[in-house]
C-alpha cells in the first residue's frame, strides 16, 4: 500500500494495480476506481468507478479498442454516459469512429505512406463534405482542408528573413496570406496571429494571441512549474505545476487540482468556490487517451462531453464544428495534454503543438525513426497520422499497441532485439519464413503445438522456430550494431532482391537480411524509394561512431539513442545501483535505480522511459522520468529475474 497526498493504491500479488482510493485522517476510505479485469495485453478490460459506473473495453485481436462504454449497469447503452465504437483498416489505421451518445461519426482514408488523406463526418444523420489533406514527399502539409491551403515552406539556407529551412512553414492562405518567421534554432516566432519567445533550451517562454499572453517558467531540468496568464496586460491567473498537482490562483479564488491516475480529478477551493465544478470528477477517455467525458464522481452525472478533429482541434459536441468557446475547469484534452484555450495551442511539455496548422512550433531534437523518410521532418505530428498514436512528451511518438496477441497463446510480444517473440508462459520463438495469405496476418508456430494467432493487420503467414530466450538471435551483429548481414542488405533497394526484401519487411516487421526490428506503422516505409536504404545506412553510421550519425540528421535532429539522465525528477527517493541487465543487441548494461521499497527502475534508451520491476523482477510498467506518470502498462511476460 502506498500513500501519496491521501491517495492510496492496492496491488495484487503480481504487482498489478487493483484499486485507487482516498484515505482520510479519521481512518475512513473512499474507493475511486477498482480494476476488475486485465486483458492478456496487460490493458484494462473493465473498471468500476466510485459511483458504481462500469467502464468496459472491447478489443480486436491486435489489441486495439473496438468499443469503450461506460454506464451504471455495465455494457454499451445509449442511455449510458460513454459509448464509442472504432474500426480499423487492414494496416491498423483508424478507419471509422462513432460516438453513439453525441451522434457523431467520422471515417478516414490514408495515402500510400499512411498519412491521413481525408476525413468525412456525419453528425445527427447529416453527412458533410470530406475534408482533404495533402503533403509533399517530406511530410510537409500542403493543404489542410479544414483550415488553410497553399502551404509554402522555407529554403535550405537559414536566417534570411526568418527562414528556418525546407520544413518550416513560411506562409499559407486562410482569408488572405498568413506569414511566419523563425529564430536560428527553428523555433517559430510569429505567424497566424501568435507571437512567441523561447529560453536557451528552446522551450516556449511566452505565447501571445487574442490579447492573452501566457508566460511559462521551467526548473533546471526543463520541467514546467508555472504559467502566468495576462489579458490585455493584466494578470488574470497563475497556475503552479508539481507532478500531478496543480494550483490555480485567480483574482477571486485559489483552487487545487490533483490528478489521480488517468481517471479521477480531485478539486478543492482554498479561496472562493469551485463554482459549477464538481470536487470529484471521473475522466472517461477515448482510444488515444484524450478526455472524452467528464463525470461527477458521486452522482454519475455528465459534466461535459468533448471531441476533437483529426489533428486534435477541439470540437463543439453540440454542432460537430470547431469549438469557439473555452473549456472551463479541466484544461487537459487531446491525448491528455494541456490546452492553451485562448491561444488555440496545446502545450505538450517538450514542445507546443498547433492543431490548426497540424504541426509543432519548434523542431524535434530526436530523429526517432531513421528508417522512415517521414520521420526526418522535425515539425510533423505523428508522421501525419494523428489517430494512430500519441506524443507523451512532445518529443517522441508512441504507437497505441506494439504487442501481438493470438488464440493459441495468451500473448506474443517482440523482445527488444526485435527478432524474438515471447509468449505469456515464457516460451520463445524466432521468425524464420513468410508466405502470402488471403485476409488477416497470421503467425504460425512450430515447437509448441503449431498454434496460429490471427492478428488482423495485413496479409501473410509467418513461421517461427522455438529459440532460447537467453540468446541474442542477431548472431552476425557485433557490439557496434552493424554486421555482415547489414552490409549484404545495402545497395539492393531497387533490385528484384531488394524489392522482395522490403515486401518481407513490410509483412513481418523485421529486416530480411539482418532480422532487426522495423516495427509498427513505420515498417511500411521500406516500400518507399530510399527509405529502406536510409535505415540501413543508419546502421553504418552507428558502427563508425557518433560523428557519422550527423549524415542522417536533418535540422537539429540527433541520434535516436536517448541517454539516461543524471537525475530522475519525476520519481523521488531513487538511488543509482550497479547495472546487471544487458542492452539487447550489445552496447553495455542498462542504467538502474532502486527505491526504498526495493522496486527496480531501468532506463529504456530507445524510448527515453523508465521500466519498473518489482523485487522479483516482474515488469510493472513504463514511466515518464520527468513527471513520474505511467506511460505503458505492465507486460506480464517481461521479467529481469536472472539479472537481479
TrEMBL record:
Single GO MF annotation: ribosome binding
Leader peptide range in chain numbering: none
Domain Colicin E3-like ribonuclease: 564-641
Entry coiled-coil feature ranges: none
Cross-referenced InterPro entries: ColE3_ribonuclease_sf (IPR036725), Colicin_E3_ribonuclease (IPR009105), Rhs_assc_core (IPR022385)
Stored NCBIfam families: Rhs_assc_core
Annotated protein name in UniProt: Colicin E3-like ribonuclease domain-containing protein
Amino acid at each position: 500500500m502506498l500513500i501519496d497526498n491521501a491517495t492510496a493504491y492496492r496491488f495484487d500479488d503480481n504487482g498489478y494495480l487493483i484499486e485507487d482510493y482516498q484515505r482520510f485522517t479519521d481512518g475512513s476510505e473512499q474507493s475511486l476506481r477498482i480494476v476488475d479485469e486485465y486483458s492478456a495485453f496487460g490493458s484494462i478490460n473493465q473498471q468500476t468507478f466510485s459511483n458504481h459506473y462500469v467502464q468496459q473495453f472491447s478489443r480486436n485481436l491486435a489489441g486495439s479498442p473496438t468499443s469503450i462504454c461506460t454506464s451504471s449497469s455495465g455494457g454499451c447503452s445509449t442511455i449510458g454516459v460513454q459509448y464509442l465504437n472504432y474500426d480499423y483498416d487492414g494496416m491498423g489505421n483508424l478507419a471509422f469512429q462513432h460516438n453513439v451518445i453525441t451522434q457523431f461519426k467520422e471515417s478516414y482514408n490514408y495515402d500510400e505512406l499512411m498519412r491521413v488523406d481525408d476525413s468525412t463526418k456525419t453528425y445527427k444523420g447529416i453527412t458533410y463534405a470530406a475534408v482533404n489533406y495533402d503533403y509533399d514527399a517530406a511530410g510537409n502539409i500542403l493543404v489542410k482542408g479544414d483550415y488553410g491551403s497553399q502551404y509554402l515552406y522555407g529554403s535550405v539556407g537559414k536566417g534570411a528573413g526568418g527562414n528556418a529551412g525546407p520544413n518550416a512553414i513560411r506562409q499559407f492562405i486562410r482569408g488572405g496570406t498568413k506569414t511566419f518567421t523563425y529564430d536560428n534554432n527553428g523555433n517559430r516566432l510569429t505567424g497566424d496571429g501568435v507571437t512567441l519567445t523561447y529560453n536557451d533550451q528552446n522551450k516556449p517562454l511566452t505565447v501571445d494571441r487574442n490579447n492573452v499572453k501566457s508566460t511559462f517558467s521551467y526548473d533546471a531540468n526543463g520541467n514546467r512549474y508555472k504559467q502566468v496568464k495576462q489579458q490585455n496586460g493584466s494578470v488574470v491567473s497563475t497556475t503552479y505545476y508539481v507532478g500531478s498537482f496543480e494550483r490555480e490562483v485567480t483574482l477571486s479564488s485559489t483552487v487545487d487540482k490533483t490528478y489521480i491516475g488517468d481517471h479521477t480529478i480531485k478539486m478543492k477551493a482554498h479561496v472562493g468556490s469551485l463554482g459549477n465544478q464538481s470536487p470529484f470528477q471521473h475522466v472517461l477517455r477515448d482510444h488515444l487517451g484524450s478526455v472524452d467525458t467528464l463525470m461527477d464522481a458521486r452522482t454519475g452525472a455528465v459534466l461535459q462531453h468533448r471531441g476533437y478533429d483529426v489533428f486534435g482541434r477541439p470540437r463543439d459536441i453540440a454542432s460537430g464544428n470547431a469549438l469557439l468557446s473555452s473549456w472551463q475547469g479541466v484544461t487537459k484534452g487531446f491525448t491528455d495534454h494541456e490546452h492553451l484555450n485562448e491561444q488555440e495551442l496545446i502545450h505538450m511539455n517538450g514542445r507546443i503543438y498547433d492543431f490548426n496548422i497540424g504541426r509543432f512550433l519548434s523542431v524535434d531534437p530526436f530523429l526517432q525513426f531513421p528508417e522512415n523518410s517521414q520521420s526526418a521532418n522535425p515539425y510533423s505530428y505523428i508522421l501525419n497520422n494523428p489517430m494512430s498514436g500519441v506524443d507523451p512528451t512532445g518529443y517522441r511518438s508512441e504507437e497505441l499497441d506494439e504487442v501481438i496477441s493470438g488464440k493459441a497463446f495468451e500473448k506474443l510480444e517482440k523482445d527488444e532485439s526485435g527478432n524474438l517473440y515471447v509468449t505469456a508462459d515464457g516460451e520463445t520463438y524466432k521468425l524464420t519464413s513468410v508466405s502470402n495469405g488471403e485476409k488477416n496476418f497470421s503467425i504460425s508456430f512450430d515447437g509448441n503445438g503449431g498454434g496460429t494467432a490471427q492478428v488482423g493487420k495485413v496479409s501473410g503467414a509467418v513461421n517461427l522456430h522455438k529459440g532460447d530466450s537467453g540468446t541474442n538471435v542477431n548472431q552476425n551483429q557485433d557490439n557496434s550494431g552493424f554486421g555482415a548481414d547489414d552490409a549484404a542488405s545495402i545497395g539492393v533497394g531497387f533490385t528484384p532482391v531488394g524489392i522482395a526484401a522490403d515486401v518481407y519487411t513490410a509483412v513481418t516487421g523485421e529486416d530480411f537480411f539482418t532480422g532487426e526490428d522495423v516495427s509498427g506503422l513505420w515498417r511500411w516505409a521500406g516500400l518507399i524509394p530510399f527509405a529502406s536504404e536510409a535505415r540501413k545506412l543508419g546502421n553504418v553510421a552507428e558502427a563508425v561512431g557518433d560523428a557519422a550519425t550527423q549524415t542522417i540528421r536533418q535540422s537539429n535532429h540527433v541520434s535516436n539513442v536517448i541517454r539516461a539522465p543524471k537525475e530522475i525528477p519525476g520519481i523521488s527517493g531513487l538511488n543509482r545501483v550497479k547495472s546487471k541487465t544487458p542492452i539487447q543487441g550489445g552496447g553495455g548494461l542498462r542504467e538502474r535505480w532502486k527505491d526504498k521499497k526495493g522496486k527496480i527502475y531501468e532506463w529504456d534508451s530507445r524510448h527515453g522511459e523508465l521500466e519498473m520491476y518489482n523485487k522479483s523482477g516482474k515488469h510493472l510498467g513504463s514511466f515518464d522520468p520527468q513527471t513520474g506518470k505511467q506511460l505503458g502498462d505492465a507486460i506480464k511476460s517481461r521479467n529481469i529475474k536472472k539479472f537481479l
